[in-house]
């Protein structure tokens, strides 16, 4: 079943770069203000359209999953904020817990939740900077369409954009159409 949802016009590279800089400034400000690790959540949204009803709904599931993860583990958060922009939604949490443990469980969410492949949890530590998958001996992300490393397929544009976007939209539609 295909569901068309209204979308905002695509964003330019300059707008994406400006949004990335804004997100990095927010992360640094939160690290300085709270002195605790910061979870930064965004969506994997290939193509020029970064904001749509479909993407906002998938993002809301990610925010809820992260909130639930923090609650289940009784990890206190000092601040939480969700931002919606035409360049895509983002969220930040400042969490009073070791960054490596936060990253490990966020990676597990990305790998086990049916929408997790579309979520990008970055963990920033006041002392060590960004905590990556490699620091936890975790493999990099795989392509949405094949089993190759995602960065290799993206860089080489191995798959037509329409196929990649179609796969993302199908994943989201399948999640919301489940029983």
From TrEMBL:
Source species taxonomy: Bacteria, Pseudomonadati, Pseudomonadota, Gammaproteobacteria, Enterobacterales
Organism of this sequence: Cronobacter turicensis
Any Pfam family the entry gives: CitX
The protein's name in its UniProt record: Apo-citrate lyase phosphoribosyl-dephospho-CoA transferase
EC supergroup of this enzyme: transferase
GO molecular function: holo-citrate lyase synthase activity; lyase activity
EC number: 2.7.7.61
Catalytic activity: apo-[citrate lyase ACP] + 2'-(5''-triphospho-alpha-D-ribosyl)-3'-dephospho-CoA = holo-[citrate lyase ACP] + diphosphate
UniProt keyword annotations, A-Z: Lyase, Nucleotidyltransferase, Transferase
Keyword DNA-binding attached: no
GO biological process, one term: prosthetic group biosynthetic process
């Amino acid at each position: 079943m295909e569901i068309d949802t209204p979308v905002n016009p695509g964003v330019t590279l300059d707008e994406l770069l400006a949004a990335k800089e804004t997100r990095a400034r927010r992360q640094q400000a939160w690290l300085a203000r709270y002195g605790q690790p910061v979870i930064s959540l965004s969506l994997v949204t290939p193509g020029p359209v970064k904001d749509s009803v479909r993407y906002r709904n998938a993002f809301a599931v990610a925010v809820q999953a992260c909130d639930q993860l923090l609650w289940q583990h009784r990890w206190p958060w000092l601040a939480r904020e969700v931002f919606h922009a035409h360049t895509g939604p983002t969220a930040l949490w400042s969490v009073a817990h070791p960054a490596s443990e936060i990253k490990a469980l966020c990676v597990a969410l990305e790998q086990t939740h049916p929408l997790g492949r579309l979520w990008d949890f970055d963990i920033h530590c006041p002392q060590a900077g960004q905590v990556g998958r490699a620091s936890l001996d975790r493999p990099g992300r795989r392509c949405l369409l094949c089993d190759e490393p995602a960065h290799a397929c993206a860089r080489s544009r191995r798959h037509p954009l329409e196929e990649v976007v179609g796969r993302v939209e199908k994943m989201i539609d399948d999640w919301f159409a489940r029983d």
